[in-house]
Amino acid sequence: MKAPVSTAVAIGVGGVILLGYFLPVPYLTNLRLLLLQWAVFLAAAALFVAALNLSQHHWVRLTNRHEAGTSGLLLIALWGSFVLGLVYPLHSAAVRGLFRFLILPIGVALLGVLTVSLIYAALQMMRRRPGLFSVLFLTTAMLILLGATALPGIGPIPFLSDTLRPWLAQVPAAAGARGILLGVALGTVATGLRILLGSDRPYGE
Amino acid sequence: MANEQSETIRCPMCGKPNPAEEEVCRHCGARLKPLTVDAKARPTADSYPQAGEEIFDLSAAAEDPLSSLDALLSDVPEGEDLLLGEIDVPLPEEEGAPAETDALLPEEEAALAANALLPEALGEAKQTEPLPPTEAAPWPEGTPEEEALAEAFADAGAETPAAEEAAPEAEEALAPAELPSWLEAMRPVESVPEPPEEEAETPMETQGPLAGLRGVLTPLTAAMLNPEERPWVSGRLALSPEHKKKIDILEQLVRDEFTPQALSHPRTPGTQRILRWLVAAVMLLAAFLPLVAPAFRQAALPGSFPAARAAQTVVARLPQQATVLLAIDYSPAFSAEMAAAARPLLADLQAKKAHLVVVSTHPLGPALADNLLTSLPRPYTAATTLGYVPGGAAGLYTFARLPRLLFATNAAGHPLWTGAALARIHTAADFDLVVVCTDDPEVARMWVEQVQPLLGQGTPLLMVVSAQAEPLVEPYYETAPRQVAGVITGLEGGMAYAATREMKVSAYTWLVWNGYSWVVLAAVALMAAAGLYNLLLGWWEARRHPRQPLLLDDTADEA
Amino acid sequence: MTTLIGTLVGFALTLFVLSYFFFRDWVLFRWVMALFIGASAGYAAAIALREVLWPMLLRPLLVLRQPLLLLPLLLVLLMLTKAFRGKVSRWGNVAVAYLVGAGAAVAVGGAVLGTLFPQSAATMDAFNFRLMRGRGMSWGEFVITGSLILLGVVTTLAYFHFGARPQPRRSPRRRGWIEALARIGEGFIAVTFGALFAGIFLAAAAALAETAQSLWLFILTLR
């Protein structure tokens, strides 16, 4: 077997935690909470490692002069906000300024840009894939959009806003969504069990 | 019986008997007699390229394939038809090379003769080893019978007739039940018999399809690793124009591999670019319209949202000075929509003097929570920010079971769980209400799966979600008993909640709501008009040019 | 003054982002993206250190002397080897395995108790007569709604059933009745995806309206 230590760790830790769901033994409960607490530390360390890797990647690009300006700016922003986050507390003016004047305006505007891409994609879809399901998709989207707003001078569109839209959301769309959620849950169980049995080793060989 | 055996050969491939005179097996077609070279039939000097004909030096190519290809190809006369090729393999000098070779060097001839005697499958693998010109081909050794066979082949090296005579004698010695050595090699390595001492120095393959075979792959030696000590191998190749074309293609492919290429941005056709600009202009116009032209502002509110009404009912039942767990689990991009959705609910909680305990599974969540709570008309001061819970589902489950395990103190070391509102909290079920604000259906699912089962009936779970998450949260609301007690969806959900509670909406939110309504209406108009046009156009094109069926389509298979 | 400069910076950054409408992925847009990603990642790393690793692990270990925390500290150090290149990063596999094992166990437990059981029960409740009376539904509404939900869930799951039988001289196909159910399921999925598409657009529309509003307010301030 490849990576026996890693596999044993994954199976052992996962097995204890999973058993705790179904066996209410106090000792087991405490042990699994302790193991989960350590997993929280590891997740925080993983976030830190991710930032370091991002920094390394852009440092290489900077030294190779491949889009050096963009990478340099990213590195300045990364290390600047890192120091700021370490030095200043959450409720400080510096952190509030970072979010109010930099992160929030850019983030919100980026999402706003998505409107054009979505509309453009919808228009193209009808041309490239005309068919029953495309029509059904787009009709549902338009009915829900219309039902979610109010017409000038009219207000909520009668029947559409108070009957059709809720019905669409609560019956056919919810049925499809429930099928998707059940499928996702089944997939989660299957993948999780493969990891816990050692068949899948996404942590490396 | 014995006579019969002496006149038959057993095929080394299938083991079945064949008449002694057969060249190949009657049953499986495998060669029974080794290939030999008739010394008289050797290629003469005339059959090789003469001076001035195209020569391709492989040793130079090995150093720098591209440059040597360039140099050589530049000298190739156009249209010259050279069909014969030659690869010269200079090997370390051997004794006893035949003297009658006039066009070939002695060692070259020796190599040719030796290679010709090799069984086909092993010929290439052995050609770099020094071999006496008349020595036997390295037929796999091991059993006495095989050695006898090898000896017979060695005798055949000088003259073909001798080889033909020697072969039956050797084959006679083959035991019928013995496996050929190459087949034996397929057995587990442990079961391969110990080789003779002199052969034991040759490394044996231990893994893969060659397991058990000795000397098939030459191991790396210091001489190979050191270019100075590497045996010099030269190659000269005659080229025809056909070859040249192929080499050109290969050369181009190799060159392209090492040439950095700029990312090509697909060129958007002009009409599509114009269409994109048009869509962008319409969207921007719709967003700014109510801002620049007050005549386009409207006072209409959205329709009713049953899930938002249910959320309002839950909040209405909440006792005064309740302790509410507030999860701010959205990304910065959704902060505008999420704030508009959450503000009316927070105003209600504020009116009830609820104490908020803020937590987030998003690293930027605590800062976004601070931004949200301070952006209310009256900043929400009765709030304790616990902070960030890493680890996704694992972290969330741990927090729900034992919040104090994760958040014993704050960063400065001060205890967090003091005061009337927090002192009674030991698990998530001790909160009076849990409100999750998220834009991500996965995060919403995580809260329902990891936290809601621990809450029980006494602590309802409310969701304030972005419109994009609502379809996948709805099934959790449509259960009995409800896993999610109420849902406030996006900007329109917040407006509907405020309308139900007859709250005063700020002028800022009102203007955003107006711009939002116009953007949505413009989008629906564009989608309806252009979608209909494209639908008709698509059908028209589909009728004119029927699409080719896919490979996996059954009709294609049948065709 | 600081607020004014900050607002001006925010205004300029917003304009650069909106320039994507007309100039696509040009240099200023890329710079703004770099700023956004860098600032978010840097602050997130600081939070991981300041709000999690220090108060939950390092402080109790160094100040309160809790020796049991040496084990997670070792795991954290192993995880940090993932930031290096070469063979040393392989040491981190044990820490990643720990995280993956814990995450998988929690995900399996949550999926079973939080989604599979309750959502299956809710689907079976589609024809729960007591529930119908509790929600004040009419018979017609009850039958139609219940049937549609049941049909939608079953056919959507059938759509994601990929088991197929090999056929002589043809590509493998699902069984006929599963294929028929899957076609119906595709319709339900189209409706669900239509709702999701509308939802994403509504979120984006809210963001665009907010952006326009903030730009307009700044222009009004300059007047």
Summarize this structure as a short list of keywords or feature phrases:
heterotrimer; A: 205 residues; mainly alpha; 0% strand; extended; B: 559 residues; alpha/beta; six-stranded parallel β-sheet; two-stranded antiparallel ribbon
Concise structural overview:
Chain B is of the alpha/beta class. Chain B has helices at residues 2-6, 58-63, 65-74, 106-117, 120-126, 144-155, 160-172, 181-184, 197-200, 222-225, 241-258, 270-292, 306-316, 335-351, 365-374, 392-401, 403-406, 420-423, 441-450, 452-455, 470-477, 490-500, 507-544, 554-558; strands at 8-10, 17-19, 323-329, 355-360, 383-388, 433-438, 461-465, 486-489. The model of chain B is unreliable at 1-5, 36-193 and 549-559 (pLDDT under 50).
What does this protein look like?
The complex is a heterotrimer of chains A (205), B (559) and C (223). In chain A, 80% of the residues lie in helices and 0% in strands. Chain A is mostly helical and 205 residues long. Chain A has a domain of 87 residues. The longest helix of chain A is centred in the N-terminal third of the chain and has 38 residues. Chain B has a domain of 211 residues: MTH777-like (Rossmann fold). Chain B has a 6-stranded parallel β-sheet with strand order 5-4-3-6-7-8, sandwiched between helices. Chain B has a two-stranded antiparallel sheet with strand order 1-2. In chain B, helix 6 runs antiparallel to helix 7 and helix 16 runs parallel beside helix 19. Chain B is extended. By secondary structure, chain C is mainly α. Chain C has 2 domains: 65 residues, no CATH class; 96 residues, no CATH class. Chain C is 78% helix and 3% strand. Chain C has 8 helices and 2 strands, in the order H-H-H-H-H-H-H-E-E-H. The longest helix of chain C is centred in the last third of the chain and has 47 residues. Chain C is extended, with a radius of gyration of 28 Å. Classes of the chains: A mainly alpha (205), B alpha/beta (559), C mainly alpha (223). Chains in contact: A-B, A-C, B-C. The interface between A and C is large, with 119 and 114 residues.
